[in-house]
Design a protein that fits this description.
Length: 127
């Protein structure tokens, strides 16, 4: 399978979508920082670390939806970035499975690409 690397933080979701289309869970997980927090599903405590990212995405592999992400804000300082995006998860039949506005913090990975450190698909949780 193709190796996808996000050369810019705004490319992370596209790489996740490509790995999802390929059915490559390890590839999806490679787009997350080892210390990541994934706030999905939104009503549950955050998933922690690479195993948490794996659990957050494993249920999507059977469906293999496409993720469309329109990043409208990206701030980069050194090896850390903050992103905001409008996104949609689209089933193979073209129906919208989910959509929202995300806030993410990305960090440079050991492979030289970018990965999610904090992934909040529905924005940051309330206090």
């Amino acid at each position: 399978m193709t190796k996808h690397i996000a050369h810019q933080p705004r490319e992370i979701a596209d790489c996740v979508s490509a790995y999802l289309q390929e059915g490559d869970l390890d590839g999806i997980v490679s787009m997350f920082h080892p210390d990541c927090l994934v706030f999905f599903p939104p009503d549950a405590p955050p998933s922690v670390g690479l195993e948490g990212a794996r659990k957050a995405f494993e249920g999507f592999l059977e469906v293999r939806p496409r993720i469309e992400s329109n990043v409208f804000s990206e701030i980069i300082t050194g090896d850390t970035a903050m992103l905001r995006a409008n996104w949609r998860v689209i089933a193979p039949d073209g129906s919208i499975m989910a959509e929202g506005q995300s806030t993410e913090v990305a960090k440079k990975l050991d492979n030289g690409g970018w990965g999610y450190l904090i992934d909040c698909p529905n924005g940051p949780p309330n206090l």
